Amino acid sequence: MQEDNVKHPSRKDRQECWNARDAFFACLDDAKVVDPAKPEAQSVCPDLRKLYESKCMKSWADYFNKRRVLAVEQKDMLEQMRAQHKAVADRLAAQEAAAKEAEAKKNAQE
């Protein structure tokens, strides 16, 4: 087995990467950019992008970028599901109220 000569990041290196990532992603949030890998996002936050790409290994940056996009997609999907659930619950509540009202009118006529 061949020993690899890859320099593994230290705790300090990892922390610097995460700090650079967080600053870059905050800038992207302010600019309303979701996917930093898209061509139109290349000109957004250039100084923070350069810092992020210099402090994080490419594989890490690729992973963080994909997780960012996935997190936004999951958040959007969850919001849609909650809205649909609320609509169904509201419709059921309205049907139950109408049924109770009809029952009350029927009982009042008897």
Account of the 3D structure:
With 110 residues, the protein is an all-alpha fold. The chain has one domain. The protein is built from three helices and no strands.
Number of strands: 0
What is the total number of structural domains?
1
- Strand residue percentage: under 5%
Secondary-structure-derived class: mainly alpha
> Which sequence of SSEs, written as H and E, runs from N to C?
HHH
Average pLDDT for all residues: 90
Shape: rod-shaped
| Low confidence ranges | none
Family: Belongs to the cytochrome c oxidase subunit 6B family.
Main location: mitochondrion
Protein name: Cytochrome c oxidase assembly factor 6
Keywords: Coiled coil, Disulfide bond, Mitochondrion
